[in-house]
Every structure is written in C-alpha cells, then in structure tokens.
Amino acid sequence: MSSPPYTPALRTGDWIAVSGQVPLRDGTFLTDRPFGEQVDAVLANVSDRLAEHGAGLGDVVKTTVFLTDMSDYSVLNERWVAAFAEPRPSRSCVAVAGLPFDVRVEVEAWAVAPAD
C-alpha cells in the first residue's frame, strides 16, 4: 500500500489533528472481523497517531465517527466507553453511504497537545 495523499496526524500549536482512521492493522483491512474488533482497531490507530506526537486518548477533546450502518451504533458505544475515560471527548456520529476500502467505520480526532 502506498503512502496516503494526506498527513495522518498533524500538530499545529497546541492541537493535534488526526485524520480519519479505519480498521487497518499490519497492512490488512479487518473488514471480515466482527464490528467490535474493527472499532478496537480504529481506536488503536487513533492512539498510535496521537502517540507519534506524545499524546494519548486522554488528550482527545473532539471526535467524528462515520458509520456505514447505524445498526452498529450500540457496539460502537460499548467499545467507546471501554477506550475513553471520563470525561469522554465530544463526538459527532454520521451515517454515510460508503467509506474507502469498504470499511464500516472511520474515526477522526482532535486532541490538545501535551506541554513540551
């Protein structure tokens, strides 16, 4: 797989913007896995992108979730609660007709960068 035509995570000032992450681990899309495992992989990817800038999931303040099937919403919420401690980041969840590579979920995030 070639490099994407965008920056996966970018720090600007006190902010880290994480581009939409999908259920991709070790170069393989997890589209054949149960939806909960796909969400776990997406959140692990968000965490990995944040770690590249010295941050973690606890630094996230805003997320946007894209789902191709809103019937997955309850599983998303279960995995979300397991991944994010209180207070959880604000979140928007949008139903979409499709996502790249036929994945079912994508998450983008904004985090406050830790002090240097």
TrEMBL record:
InterPro entries: RutC-like_sf (IPR035959), YjgF/YER057c/UK114 (IPR006175). One of its GO terms (cellular component) is cytosol. GO terms for molecular function: deaminase activity. It comes from Iamia majanohamensis. This is RidA family protein. Gene3D superfamilies: RutC-like (3.30.1330.40).
